Structure formats: structure tokens, C-alpha cells
């Protein structure tokens, strides 16, 4: 048998396994006597405490280090399972949509390639010359004096 601890928000409820006699609670040196098997700590500040309950010669001890928060929401197992299942189904749905929309585009040419006219080849204008690669002019031979002419 062990002490049972239940946490809800900032309230911690400790249940003693002893059933007979007057139960004495000891929380870090603060003693309390009563007939209650349950001890309720309201507005617990998450600080660790030593808890014990005793009756006659029997005594149960516990070190309680419970983290509590005021704005926490309690979720049961079916709610958590439902959230995870819904998330997986939505993700799977998005993956299927992306697959089907991308599957149709695999065999097609790009949209810009389909707009060109295929009948006559149109002449393109010459590319704009790059000033770093200008051809050698007859009057500027001294700039390129170190270059030797090649015969083609």
C-alpha cells in the first residue's frame, strides 16, 4: 500500500492507505490530526515537502515534489489520442492532395515552352555585349599588346 497523490491545477490531494483509527498527518514538521484519509493542499507552490500519515504503529512516508500550474488543462487519454489521430489524418490528406496535383504536371512541358510558335524560327537579336569582353578594335591595340593573335 502507498500514498495516493492526485493533482488538479494548484490543488494536491494526498490519500493515506490507512483505514482505521485517527490519522495523523505530518507535512514537513506541521502536524495535523483528524479522521480524514485525504489531505488537500490548496494553492500548492510546487515546493518539495515530506509527507507522512500515521495511525497507531503504522506510518507511511513520501517525498512530494509535484509541479503544479494554475492555467493547465487536464486531458484524458481519449482526448490526446483523438488530437493525435486528427493531426495524422489532416497531414495524410495534405500529402494525398499534393501527390495528385503534382502527378498531373509530370508529363507536361513547362508553360512557357508551350507558348512559342513552332512553325517559323524567328531570328533573335544579337546579345548585348558585355563591356568586360569587348572585341579588340584597331585603334586600341596597346591595351591588348600582350595578347598574341591566333590563327583559326
TrEMBL record:
Alphabetized GO MF terms: transmembrane signaling receptor activity
Superkingdom in the source lineage: Eukaryota
TM regions (residue ranges): 79-101
Predominant subcellular localization, coarse grouping: membrane
Gene Ontology, cellular component aspect: alpha-beta T cell receptor complex; external side of plasma membrane
Comp. bias regions, Polar residues: 112-123
One Gene Ontology term from the biological process aspect of the record: positive thymic T cell selection
Residue segments, region Disordered: 105-140
PANTHER family, sorted: T-CELL SURFACE GLYCOPROTEIN CD3 EPSILON CHAIN, T-CELL SURFACE GLYCOPROTEIN CD3 GAMMA CHAIN / DELTA CHAIN
Protein's name in the database: T-cell surface glycoprotein CD3 epsilon chain
Lineage, highest ranks first: Eukaryota, Metazoa, Chordata, Craniata, Vertebrata
Amino acid at each position: 500500500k502507498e500514498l495516493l497523490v492526485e493533482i488538479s491545477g494548484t490543488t494536491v490531494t494526498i490519500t493515506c492507505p490507512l483505514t482505521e483509527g485517527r490519522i495523523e498527518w505530518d507535512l514537513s514538521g506541521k502536524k495535523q490530526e483528524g479522521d480524514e484519509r485525504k489531505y488537500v493542499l490548496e494553492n500548492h507552490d510546487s515546493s518539495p515537502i515530506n509527507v507522512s500519515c500515521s495511525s497507531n504503529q503504522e506510518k507511511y512516508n513520501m517525498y512530494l515534489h509535484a509541479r503544479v500550474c494554475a492555467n493547465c488543462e487536464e486531458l484524458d487519454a481519449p482526448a490526446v489520442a483523438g488530437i493525435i489521430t486528427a493531426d495524422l489524418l489532416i497531414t495524410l490528406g495534405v500529402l494525398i492532395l499534393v501527390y495528385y496535383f503534382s502527378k498531373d504536371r509530370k508529363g507536361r512541358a513547362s508553360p512557357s515552352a508551350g507558348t512559342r510558335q513552332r512553325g517559323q524560327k524567328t531570328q533573335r537579336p544579337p546579345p548585348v555585349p558585355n563591356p568586360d569582353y569587348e572585341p579588340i578594335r584597331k585603334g586600341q591595340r596597346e591595351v591588348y599588346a600582350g595578347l598574341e593573335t591566333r590563327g583559326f
